[in-house]
Amino acid sequence: MATSPKRVSVHGGHSGQFCDHAEDTLEDIIRAYIAHGYAWVGITEHMPPERDELSYPDELAAGLNAADQQARFANYMSTCRRLRDKYASEIRILVAFETEAYSGYERWVPAVRKEFKPDYIVGSVHQIDDELIDGSPEWYREAAEAAGGVDELYCAYFDRQYEMIETLSPEVIGHFDLVRIFDPDYRTRLLKPFVWDRVVRNLEAIRDLGSIMDFNLAALKKGQPEPYVSGPVLDQAVKMGIAVVPGDDSHGVGNIDQFWDEGVRVLRDAGSDLKWKCPA
Fold first, then answer.
1. Alpha-carbon distance 185 to 150, whole Å?
2. Which is nearest to 185 in space by CA: 220, 215, 154?
3. End-to-end distance of the chain based on CA atoms, in angstroms?
4. What dotted CATH number matches 8-269?
5. Average pLDDT, integer, range 255-262
6. How far is Cα 211 from Cα 15, in angstroms, rounded to an integer?
7. How far is it, in rounded angstroms, from Cα 62 to Cα 53?
């Protein structure tokens, strides 16, 4: 009988306390991880924007400017460290954050990292030309039209991701193939030579850096047929010896441990050893 791997999340813990598109307090979220028996969790709240125009729409709707979000982020870091210490006997909490790759990120992310000294960062791409691609099908279509088509959007996404990996050297790569989110033909598109060549190039960069790939279970919550990363990408990553670790990308207590068993089954079938690498 196969042994059950330790429950972990390399990319989790967004909370309504510090993110307007999430729910619940950070302490409630940490308690939920403890209740589900997690060995360790990386809390990876979104980094704050440098400028107002780079804010997420929900933050703007809440009346938060960039300075407000920067102050809230500082509160997040101190709160997360306090909770890490409070619950140290029950769970290992890693205090981290998720990056953006919008205009100016190559200067802003290192500055935030230097100031707050997180245990690690999750390198993610959510925007192309500063336009969010994962908020709604309408935004996705608009981003694709601006890029010249869906094929071109994939190319722009993986090119920006490669640049981000080379520039930031993130310990974890978030939801590697998020660009597929509203594309029903993603399985075919990912394997187009001009897309697949970029996928392999980016995987080589991740391997050479020794970074971890976030096996992002939130894709299933959003109705996707498989986690990020998709099957062919996962097979290639495992073949290349890249560490792949589950991340629930939780945005509330209800997401914690959701789809864990399904995700582990996919990883086991792909040949993963299920011996999770910790980023810090």
1. 10
2. 154
3. 31
4. 3.20.20.140
5. 94
6. 25
7. 14
